[in-house]
Design goal:
This protein is of the alpha/beta class. The chain is built from eight helices and eleven strands. The protein has one domain (5-267): 2-Layer Sandwich (BirA Bifunctional Protein, domain 2). Helix content is 35%, strand content 23%. Helix 1 (17-32) packs across helix 7 (235-244) and helix 2 runs antiparallel to helix 4. The chain starts with a strand and ends with a helix.
Length: 271
């Protein structure tokens, strides 16, 4: 077991889709400042389209966000890069914030470690989970986790700031058809080529899936590698997330990042 101690948080805010992302941003900056320990948050997602920074700059972004909302998925701008991904209530989200004085030095190693943890967790459930990109997958990435080389079950991304980093990940537990159906018009609007057949879930592989079982498998896999202690989100992190929430809403929705002094102050620290 690695001697690092990680505080496990399980707080979630399903009725405020952008707040979960804002909380990850707040924890990232507080970890960077030494105000929080290394934390791992595992939580059930709301129904969202998680857009990367590149997505929000393309001409089709407004249409993509509208397509998501028409299907009941709110638009959120996430911390890590990559293209659009869809999450819903049967998606387990991982947000891992860790201090690092030189966060750029071990980017690939962290991708490998996180993807291996997620794949090992799914193998605990008897899924043929492998690390690697499936040709034509949504939000493509070298460190996606797939089922038998056929469908994407999980993904991982990173965001670096001075003094810390965020690793974001997800596992689709069930109801892959909902994700496939919403990603078709979203990616059409963004002009992103992909293969809808690559959307998968644990349920698709096993014939059934329980969210609690998948979360437990992920927790157990982390506990096999690190010392895990339970915790809860600090009031200070919640307060910062309140100020950052608007930054993760699409343009034109509520308070924009350019109007938020805290957002401007923090954005200058991004690595």
């Amino acid at each position: 077991m690695n001697q690092r101690t990680i505080t496990l948080l399980r707080d979630a805010f399903p009725h405020r889709p952008a707040f979960d992302t804002a909380l990850s941003a707040a924890l990232l900056h507080r970890v960077a400042a030494g105000a929080e320990p290394e934390v791992l948050r595992l939580y059930r997602s709301a129904a969202i389209i998680s857009f990367g920074p590149r997505d929000v700059r393309v001409a089709g972004f407004a249409a993509a966000a509208a397509a998501g909302r028409a299907a009941g998925f709110e638009a959120v701008e996430r911390l890590a890069g990559g293209r659009a991904a869809a999450f819903h209530e049967q998606t387990l989200v991982l947000a891992w914030e860790m201090p690092d004085d030189a966060p750029r030095e071990h980017i690939q190693e962290r991708y490998v470690e996180t993807a291996q943890i997620m794949a090992a967790a799914l193998r605990r459930l008897r899924v043929d989970a492998r690390v690697g990109e499936v040709p034509g997958e949504y939000c493509p990435g070298e460190y996606s986790v797939n089922a038998g080389g056929r469908t994407k079950l999980a993904g991982v991304g990173q965001r670096l700031v001075s003094g810390a980093l965020h690793i974001g990940g997800f596992v689709v537990v069930a109801e892959s058809a909902r994700l496939r159906d919403v990603l078709v018009p979203v990616n059409r609007a963004l002009d992103v080529p992909w293969d809808p057949a690559t959307v998968g879930s644990v349920e698709d592989e096993l014939g059934h899936a329980d969210y609690a079982d998948v979360e437990r498998a992920v927790r157990e896999e982390f506990a096999a590698r690190f010392t895990i202690v339970p915790g809860s989100v600090s009031p200070e992190a919640l307060a910062m997330a309140e100020e950052l929430e608007a930054r993760h809403l699409p343009a034109g929705a509520g308070l924009g990042a350019s109007q938020c002094s805290l957002c401007r102050r923090l954005s200058g620290r991004d690595g």
